[in-house]
Write a structure and sequence with these properties.
The complex is a heterodimer of chains A (115) and B (115). Chain A has 115 residues and is mainly β. Chain A is built from no helices and eleven strands. The termini of chain A are far apart. In chain B, the strands form two sheets. In chain B, strands 2, 4, 5, 6, 9, 10 and 11 form a seven-stranded mixed sheet that branches. Chain B has a four-stranded antiparallel sheet with strand order 1-3-8-7, with no helix packed on it. Classes of the chains: A mainly beta (115), B mainly beta (115).
Chain lengths: 115, 115
């Protein structure tokens, strides 16, 4: 049972345009969400996060939006650059029980930004 | 992911052998997490350790797998009597503290191939 879902395995965008990566979750106990970027043969690199008490967090070209009622979050990258081409993972965590700190990951979306 | 060192980067084992994966966290970090990524899948949580203690091993297979994070030295993920299905990328992450709102830094991973 996948608690974090990234339904688009891939996304192709033209350089300079906006990239929108989507993520849905099922567990209402999740209260912290993160986006990681991963290049081939490397470990995931933290990009941006958002707490459930917010609905938007912005960091440079990256903005994450959270819609708690829809259990949906999205990562916007604008403008997209060829160096953004990577696999993007959505992750969530919950501060309850004994599972503090461990993240539940989606399967990832492969973003290709064409020059 | 700067600072988290995993070795070896690639490990080949024959069925039935033992695999030992090492992880040195970011200096000063006392919390270590192990994740496994199967091909075309997201990262799956395995185990969360603090120095000398296993905090959460809910994602760890009950048999053949063990993990430790001794007072001195790296964290070790040990897989006994490996089988082909153990072939995956194993990622270690560390954080300075537990709980939500804590970004985990990932290493580059160990790619285990069982032949």
């Amino acid at each position: 049972d996948q608690q974090v879902k990234q339904n688009s395995p891939s996304l192709s965008v033209q350089e300079g345009r906006i990239s929108i990566l989507n993520c849905d979750y099922t567990n209402s106990m999740f209260d912290y969400f993160l986006w990681y970027k991963k290049y081939p043969a490397e470990g995931p690199t933290f990009l941006i996060s958002i707490s459930s008490i917010k609905d938007k967090n912005e960091d440079g070209r990256f903005t994450v939006f959270l819609n708690k009622s829809a259990k949906h979050l999205s990562l916007h990258i604008v403008p997209s650059q060829p160096g953004d081409s990577a696999v993007y993972f959505c992750a969530a965590s919950a501060n309850y029980g004994g599972s503090q700190g461990n993240l539940i990951f989606g399967k990832g979306t492969k973003l290709s930004v064409k020059p | 992911n700067a600072g988290v060192m995993q070795n070896p980067r690639h490990l080949v084992r024959r069925r039935g052998q033992e695999a030992r994966l090492r992880c040195s966290p970011v200096k000063g970090h006392s919390h270590v997490y192990w994740y496994r990524q199967l091909p075309e899948e997201g990262l799956k949580f395995m185990v969360y350790l603090q120095k000398e203690n296993i905090i959460d091993e809910s994602g760890m297979p009950k048999e053949r797998f063990s993990a430790e994070f001794p007072k001195e030295g790296p964290s070790i993920l040990r897989i006994q009597q490996v089988v082909r299905g153990d072939s995956a990328a194993y990622f270690c992450a560390s954080s300075p503290q537990s709980g939500v709102n804590t970004e985990a830094f990932f290493g580059q991973g160990t790619r285990l191939t069982v032949v």
